[in-house]
Specification:
Elements (H helix, E strand, L loop, with lengths): L4 H5 L7 H15 L8 H17 L2 H8 L21 H22 L3 E4 L2 E4 L7 E7 L1 H6 L1 E6 L5 E6 L8 E4 L15 E7 L6 E3 L2 E9 H6 L1 E7 L2 E7 L8 E4 L13 E8 L6 H18 L1
Parallel strand pairs: 3-7, 9-13
Antiparallel strand pairs: 1-2, 4-5, 6-7, 8-9, 10-11, 12-13
């Protein structure tokens, strides 16, 4: 026995096209695989309500389904004509079917027809936009990348993430929204972005800040220190006599915007040994004493 697309969407058979669209949008948001990952039952139901939506927003297919000519999967149903011999009963049934079809068309397409020169023709209508929310990894937002997303009809797309993306921005995927009526163009998919935080890096416009711990010897004598930047490992030259709080700049190692990437601002933090070090204490006392003598 075939399934019922009206029941799948939770709407009565008399529902308008707009009622069907509203019901589908509500269910799609609840059942979408991105909202309920690894939920097979929700995924199957999502596919079923999408199939129901596709059938009931296609006016000719919906009319044929309502007349019992096809089932919910689009398969032809055998037709029986009572009355036989082309007689009165058959003609009456045909007239009633035409009347029902006309009523269905009037109900479905009221306001969707265009008038001109006294004639009435079918008008195309653009499909609805569909909105999504997606969290993007901090490094993908800095460097750019790609992310696979699942659309409302179950298709998977590779979404290009441009470098420099920020929270609150919306990416538009043209033609990836709900299908249009009467052969009209599909709507767009609007993806609102939230960029995740990072444990090491903090963004300021197109620049990125980070703290780098260095030893006392590296601060006093200078040296070359490895640094993990958002775009990979580099070696940073620490000047001799550096202090905690000094800022060093790595040009072009910030947000990879084009044509000019941002910079990476590295704040130095001098870290002393955690364990008690008598030699270090003796050195500091001796150095402090010499400094006091010089000042006197």
């Amino acid at each position: 026995m075939s399934w019922d697309p009206y029941a799948a969407l939770g709407v009565p058979k008399s529902s308008s096209a707009e009622d069907i669209r509203k019901a589908y949008r509500k269910l799609a948001k609840e059942l979408h695989p991105d909202v309920r990952p690894n939920d097979k039952a929700s995924e199957d139901r999502f596919k079923r309500v999408t199939a129901a939506f596709n059938l009931l927003t296609d006016a000719p297919l919906r009319a044929r389904f309502d007349r019992g000519e096809i089932d919910a999967d689009g398969n032809e149903r055998p037709q029986f004509q009572p009355g036989g011999f082309g007689g009165f009963a058959g003609a009456g049934a045909g007239a009633r079917a035409r009347g029902q079809r006309s009523e269905v068309f009037e109900d479905l397409f009221d306001g969707l027809f265009s008038r001109g020169g006294g004639s009435r023709g079918f008008g195309q209508q653009r499909g609805e936009d569909v909105r999504y929310r997606m969290e993007v990894d901090f490094l993908d937002a800095v460097n750019g990348g790609r992310r696979r997303v699942t659309m409302s009809d179950g298709r998977s797309l590779d979404l290009a993430i441009p470098a420099g993306l920020t929270s609150g921005q919306t990416l538009r995927l043209k033609g990836q929204g709900l299908p249009g009526a009467g052969g009209g163009p599909a709507g767009d998919a609007l993806v609102e972005i939230t960029v995740g935080a990072h444990s090491t890096f903090k963004r300021e416009g197109d620049d990125i800040r980070m703290d780098l711990r260095i030893s006392l010897a590296e601060a006093v004598e200078g040296g070359r220190v490895p640094v993990q930047t958002p775009s990979g490992a580099v070696t940073l030259s620490v000047p001799a006599s550096s202090n905690s709080g000094d800022l060093l700049k790595l040009r072009g190692k910030g947000v990879q915007t084009r044509p000019t990437p941002g910079d990476l601002l590295v704040r130095l933090l001098i870290v002393l040994p955690r364990k008690d070090d008598p030699e270090l204490k003796d050195f500091v006392r001796s150095w402090s004493g010499r400094k006091a003598d010089v000042q006197r």
